[in-house]
Design brief:
InterPro entries: DNA_brk_join_enz (IPR011010), Integrase-like_cat_sf (IPR013762), Integrase_catalytic (IPR002104), Integrase_recombinase_N (IPR010998), Phage_Integrase (IPR050808). With about 325 residues, the protein is mainly α. It has helices at about 1-10, 15-25, 30-45, 60-70, 75-95, 120-130, 135-145, 150-155, 190-195, 225-240, 260-270, 275-280, 290-295, 300-320, and strands at about 170, 180-185.
Length: about 325
């Protein structure tokens, strides 16, 4: 009887239940984005196994599935492997499962860091393409470029996080990757983008949505892959319409939203901004100031960060004016008012 009870309890711990327990337990102190995205990725990729007892999953099954994912999405496969191995390792230490089916899975290759920095022509092309796109993604992309913050952080921006004079945006620790609260200076162009927007109503309450960028009034924008694809399509269309332009002035399509952060800091270095200031702008915990100095460094360089983002915004507008490919006026869709 006791053995049957133990077996029933083990069978009740399905993969779906284990993911939830891992999210509520091991990930409790993780960043909000990882706590949300890692379990969601596992549930989506292993949807057909969610009702299986976690203890019944085998290395052979995990290897076969991740090999299939690798064929099309190698980076995603490596991240799924890392999440699965971490989750089952946590469960194994608590005697919830007899072993870790991910521990002996072999992943080909390794994840390498992207080093792409947008050219001035690409910066201008992204800015112009975003200006031709309607709310929410048109102004979203422009603000992403101007603030150099992470995609999910900008997407989840709330009106309550913006200061009354629109000069700063305060991110609470629960919304950032490193769980460290962050104050972002808003340059004049960034302030103008926000000034041109009005809160979208929440259809359930009739009240204004708390989110600056939302498609439904209930939640922040998502669907970034489609948005990036649309930006690329607009960039290509605008480049094609620019007859007589040199090939070097046409935008290259091998870029990601995250590359905007690297591009901004690269340009800041050219403009004389110190690496430690750029690290503060990006909200990197470990950067140019390390070790004991980082522990005792209490100065947040707010004035210097503001100057850096102002200089970056001025640079963006400069390359748009001097070297960018301006979209035809007839195709421009104004920002939502």
């Amino acid at each position: 009887m006791e053995r049957q009870t133990a077996q029933a309890a083990a069978d009740a711990l399905t993969l779906g239940v284990l993911i939830t327990r891992w999210q509520d337990g091991a990930l409790r102190d993780s960043s909000a984005s990882y706590r949300k995205d890692a379990p969601a990725s596992l549930r989506s990729s292993f949807a057909g196994l969610l009702d299986r007892p976690a203890r019944s999953l085998t290395t052979m099954e995990m290897q076969a599935h991740l090999d299939d994912v690798t064929l099309r999405y190698p980076v995603m496969a490596r991240r799924l492997h890392a999440c699965g191995r971490s989750m089952f390792g946590w469960a194994e230490k608590r005697n919830l499962v007899p072993g870790n089916p991910f521990s002996d899975v072999v992943m080909e290759g390794r994840e390498t860091s992207r080093e792409h920095v947008l050219t001035d022509a690409e910066i201008a092309a992204v800015w112009n393409a975003a200006g031709s796109m309607p709310y929410p993604f048109g102004p979203f992309v422009r603000l992403l470029l101007l603030t150099l913050q992470r995609r999910n952080e900008v997407a989840g921006m709330r009106w309550a996080e913006i200061s009354p004079d629109r000069s700063t945006w305060t991110l609470p620790g629960g919304r950032v990757k490193n769980s460290k609260g962050h104050i972002v200076h808003l340059s004049a162009p960034a302030q103008q983008i926000l000034a041109d927007l009005q809160p979208v109503p929440d259809p359930d309450t009739g009240m204004a949505s708390p989110y600056v960028f939302t498609s439904n009034g209930r939640s922040p924008v998502s669907g970034f892959s489609k948005a990036k694809k649309r930006v690329g399509e607009v960039m290509a269309a605008q480049a094609a319409e620019s007859a007589g332009k040199k090939p070097s002035a046409l935008p290259e399509q091998d870029w990601r939203f995250h590359d905007l952060r690297r591009t901004g800091t690269t340009v800041m270095a050219r403009l004389g901004v110190g690496h430690h200031i750029a690290d503060k702008v990006l909200n990197h915990v470990e950067g140019a100031i390390k070790g004991v100095a980082a522990i005792y460094q209490r100065h947040d360089y707010l004035a210097e960060r503001a100057a850096a983002l102002d200089a970056w915004a001025a640079y963006v507008l400069k390359v748009v004016k001097e070297g960018g490919i301006e979209p035809p006026a007839s195709n421009v869709v104004p920002l939502r008012r």
